[in-house]
Amino acid sequence: MGRVWRATDHVLDRQVAVKEMRIDGLDPEDGRTRRERTLREARATARIDHPNVVRVYDVVDEGERLWIVMELVASRSLERVMAEEGPLRPRETARIGLGLVEALRQVHAGGVLHRDIKPGNVLVERGGRVVLTDFGIAAIQDAKALTMVGMLVGSPDYMAPERISGRPQGPPSDVWSLGATLCAALAGHSPFSRDTTLATLHAVLYEEPRLPAGAGPLTDVLRALLEKTPQARPSLPALAESLRAVAHPDEPPTRALRSPTRPELPDGSGERPPEGAPSGPAVASRGRSRVVAGTGVVAVVVGVVLALAPWSGGDGDQAGGGASPKPSPSPTSSPSATVEGTSGPPSPAPGAHQEAGGFAWATPQGWRRDVKTGAEVHYTSPDGTQELAAKSSLARGDLMDTWRTSEQNARQGGDYRKIRLEETTYKGRPAVVWEYTFTLRGARWHARLLGFDQAGKSYQINTWYRPAVEAAALKTYDEVKESFTVL
């Protein structure tokens, strides 16, 4: 939906972040919806004045463009911290959690739901301040809702069960996402992250969370936050007390958080697996202020809203995030295969984009980029008919056995139909290919996933596409797959 620029407010002589919004839609109605969402985002955030919530200073409306002028936060996202430094310790995680609790107390008091709390939307300053940002899909509870037909906004790994199943949402939904985010801080990934989005959605709805082994004193807190039933989750004041006991153990505790017993859902509650997929300078001016976005800065994609076809990703970096794992899409280049058995490190294909997950690939020009974690990145075609994804993770046993388990889970929803799951080779090494179709909100999709292990890590190169564009989609996939290089 846009990018963020580091900019200078010449009237007040201060550095700011300017979020340049893309409001051109597929049609006039889509453009109107984007504009409404942008203005609503600015209004939602501007209502809140709190050190743990990113501040909005101004909105500039220049016809075809909208600009949101925000506080520039000199920080890294929690996602970036995890990618660069690895999982956090319980005490550090609890301190971050306390900052997010204070942010949510202000947000909810203002009648706002954030709806997309995840590591990419949490900023951590060197001094320790935690800032919640990117209210791109926030819903003001007393405002008229915007209808997005066929779209699910948010990140499945951090999305509360009631959001996925279409049940009523409220503050407990943000509390659940907070719990998943704190788990990710401790483990490096969401407790519901699976090999495919369909398996992830199933895990959120029906499986118990895989709590981090190093959670220690936060184990019971996390288990309570991730209760499937919203009413069973703790209140923010109670959560703050429990986190404070871990973050500041020298202070005398007042009360501890109890993990409530989950009420059993009645039969016929309607909880079913949802249909889903596996997983130059710019100048803005108005009246009192003139904001110039300078050259030579990092522009990052923000506020991305992906249809849950085939994967509903999150938006990622944030206002003033500085270094970001989400640069603008890389240019198209001619793919070149990795040469095995040569001396020295492998060379990426010319023009290939190097990812934090330890690989590089040449991706199509103009496609929308979305980073799920530091080790997983997605690209979506402009017309939304194809998505490409690549990721890396630690190898966990036999790859075929792992994918067979994921395939069994995938059978439980989304009108899934298996085409093949078999061993193959990729650039001379053993690999696994998984191909299937599924239906999302009445539309048919085709998936092709390729996985292989190398040097203790697993890598995936995946695509999802509409059958009508199969020939072009597979040509693009083959080119991108050929350019993939493990670094």
Automatic annotation (TrEMBL):
Residue span(s) of domain Protein kinase: 1-251
Entry keyword annotation includes Transferase: yes
Coiled coil ranges: none
InterPro entries: Kinase-like_dom_sf, Prot_kinase_dom, Ser/Thr_kinase_AS
GO-annotated molecular function: ATP binding; protein serine/threonine kinase activity
Short name of one Pfam family: Pkinase
Region listing for Disordered, in residue ranges: 245-288, 316-357
EC number annotated for this UniProt entry: 2.7.11.1
Alphabetical UniProt keywords: ATP-binding, Kinase, Nucleotide-binding, Serine/threonine-protein kinase, Transferase
UniProt enzyme class: transferase
Protein name per UniProt: non-specific serine/threonine protein kinase
UniProt organism field: Streptomyces griseoruber
